[in-house]
TrEMBL record:
It holds the Pfam family Ppx-GppA. Coiled coil: none annotated. Residues 13-303 form the Ppx/GppA phosphatase N-terminal domain. InterPro entries: ATPase_NBD (IPR043129), GppA/Ppx_hydrolase (IPR050273), Ppx_GppA_N (IPR003695). GO terms for molecular function: exopolyphosphatase activity. Its EC number is 3.6.1.11. Belongs to the GppA/Ppx family. The keyword Hydrolase applies. This is Exopolyphosphatase 1.
Amino acid sequence: MLDVGSNTVHLLVVDARRGGHPTPMSSTKASLRLAESIDNNGKLTRKGADKLIGTLDEFSKIAASSGCAELMAFATSAVRDAKNSEELLARVHAETGVALQVLSGVDESRLTFLAVRRWYGWSAGRIINIDIGGGSLELSNGVDEEPEVALSLPFGAGRLTREWLPDDPPGRRRVNMLRDWLATELADAGAEMLKAGTPDLAVATSKTFRSLARLTGAAPSGAGPRVKRTLTATGLRQLIAFISRMTAADRAELEGVSAERAPQIVAGALVAEASMKALDVESVDICPWALREGLILRKLDSEADGTALVETSVQRR
């Protein structure tokens, strides 16, 4: 699976079969920061497109050499928001053979919810999920595998860092301005989510939430995916007061924060705080499965019942 996000391109080789647990076999990443390559006209620059095409070509060859029977390729907000996305997709296919599928924000939300539901099972009852990406925020709420409400909002950690927190460190005034703005912007979305029903379980997905949980004392990734990890609103408030005074370089020295995520972790924490407040939850469980697993599960399901997928597979020349 090739995942083209706002920050990274991620190749994940997975052993997956219907009824089985998708098992990661290998992982390869490249930090392209595509969202930062969008020009003033809203288009992905030639340089950004060149880097993406080179990376996709390299990663698809790695997948082939790894013996992958099939390779799915999908892109999220950075490519979705680019005004020249159709031109970019055509060029990607012509030069690499990769049929890159752009997911809508709502599909991101729905597929992430599917992964969360499969991870926790039916006994979890009504689940509400929060996922913070580089370019967008996804919210979902439901009791089945298909959420009753699925939203996608342009409040990603990378986007808000560029628009609201350009200084390093960001400064208390700007942090408070963004906090107040997010509270206002998320009020209606929170009300719409809760109208569907009060959750029995509040969940969070994404690298941003995993990093925030680690910074507030959750177990490291080395402890394995089945260790319970939580993030509390109280711990998050204390963390924001701490990391918002640090430079990105200093934040990158903290355990659980990568160098590429360090510049945007403050904005990510503010989005997490505002989302939890809007949804009236005091803590969230961190789910190790998210969008990629949702795509895999949906594909396996579709192969069994013959339904159409929202994603397409890579076609090799």
